[in-house]
Design brief:
Oligomer: single chain
Number of helices: 16
Shape: globular
Mean pLDDT: 94
Helix content: 40-55%
Length: about 400
């Protein structure tokens, strides 16, 4: 027997910048040309329709930027504008459109696809770029809090299929990521809050000091104050990157996924609500379920549970959705099917992250359904109390 070993090193820069398409900002051109600074690089650009609508000058700005840097950049064709949101991952047509465009404009493995948009579009375009020619360079320009503080800086991409979240996908690190804080200015309160769920998640399992910073600045964050948002994005992105680089398992070959704390329920809730719940909103509910469960089984102190639930409420995140009450014919909650789907997606045994204390997660390999029932019922009671007190939840 011959045992073959292959080691591959990846590196990609993450820029925290402002006005990425201003001609005087060289971050984008520097990122694209970082390996071959002397030659002109062909690029294709794909833009989220919502971003294009929010920034009417964006196409003109991109054209002027490429013209200004024409010695190092060549735009292969006019930017392709596609719908964003989870529908772009559910419908196979946008993927075919992107692949056809990459073929038509003749991008090769030394070219780059620049995607400007939210996490769903980045996921789909990343999957297309990773499979075309077995890998075209992907440059991400995330435009939401969620994509800037979590998904956009990571190494995963994919689309939904067979009713399952990210059933098709690859691990493919981007060539570069450029987080432009200006794009956050046009987001709705709902989108701002949804992105903060991933920051709460990583703080809870990785950094207690960051969690208490979120508590201290919850008012500014909920109001969308730029300075607070920039700090949230940067610290959350740093924590995600530290885990990817330092976990020893960046492509998730094992069965542990601590960065998916709260996600087994979140992914199921997204499908149960036909994606009416935003990903971050579903993650918030999933965090609430797993945190309450952690308290029910004696891992997490009740004051810590109250602190994290109160923080998410202050940020404008939902802790309940009526889809939690959907049941099979035998009376079992359908959301619990998310555990089996999560295990299947991981491979091997079920591994779920729970909370031992704020800032410290712990992995378990089974969850008791009676305790999950108590957790869900606890969240229902809390939601009803808020309703009776006159507090309107972010998502009904």
């Amino acid at each position: 027997m011959h045992l073959q070993r292959i080691a591959v090193t990846f590196d990609y820069p993450i820029y925290f910048t402002t006005d990425v398409f201003a001609p005087g900002n060289s971050d984008l051109v520097d990122a694209i040309s970082r390996r071959e600074p002397e030659r002109c690089h062909r690029i294709g650009i794909i833009i989220d329709q919502g971003v294009a609508d929010a920034w009417p000058s964006l196409l003109e700005d991109i054209d002027q930027y490429v013209r200004h840097h024409c010695a190092r950049l060549e735009l292969a064709c006019a930017p392709l504008v596609l719908p964003g949101g989870e529908s772009v991952k559910n419908d196979p047509a946008p993927l075919r459109t992107v692949l056809a465009e990459l073929n038509a404009i003749g991008l090769d493995r030394q070219s780059a696809v620049v995607c400007v948009g939210g996490g769903a579009l980045l996921d789909m375009v990343g999957y297309a770029a990773a499979t075309a020619h077995r890998g075209i360079r992907m440059v991400r320009v995330p435009t939401t809090v969620l994509s800037q503080d979590d998904s956009g800086v990571g190494v995963k991409n994919g689309i939904n299929a067979f009713g399952k979240k990210n059933f098709l996908g690859t691990f493919a690190p981007p060539f570069a990521v450029l987080n432009d804080s200006r794009f956050l200015e046009s987001l709705s309160r709902r989108d701002l809050a949804a992105g903060m769920a991933e920051a709460v998640k990583v703080a809870l399992i990785r950094d207690a000091a960051f969690f208490w910073w979120l508590v201290e600045h919850a008012g500014d964050l909920a109001a969308g104050h730029p300075a607070a948002l920039e700090l949230l994005v940067r610290r959350s992105a740093e924590l995600h990157l530290e885990h990817i680089a330092g976990s020893g398992d960046p492509f998730e070959m094992g069965s542990a996924r601590p960065l998916d704390f709260g996600h087994w329920a979140a992914h199921k809730l997204e499908s149960l609500t036909a994606h009416q719940l935003l990903h971050g909103e579903a993650v918030a509910i999933g965090i609430a379920i797993d945190s309450w469960y952690s308290a029910e089984c004696g891992l997490l102190d009740p004051p810590a549970l109250e602190a994290l639930l109160a923080l998410m409420e202050r940020l404008g995140l939902p802790l309940w959705n009526d889809a939690l009450d959907a049941r099979a014919e035998d009376g079992r909650r359908l959301v619990l099917d998310g555990l089996g789907e999560f295990r299947e997606h991981l491979g091997g045994e079920l591994t779920v992250t729970l909370l031992q204390e704020i800032g410290r997660g712990i992995e378990v390999h089974a969850m008791a359904e009676p305790l999950l029932e108590r957790a869900v019922e606890g969240l229902r009671r809390r939601a009803m109390m808020r309703y009776c007190a006159g507090t309107v939840p972010a998502v009904a």
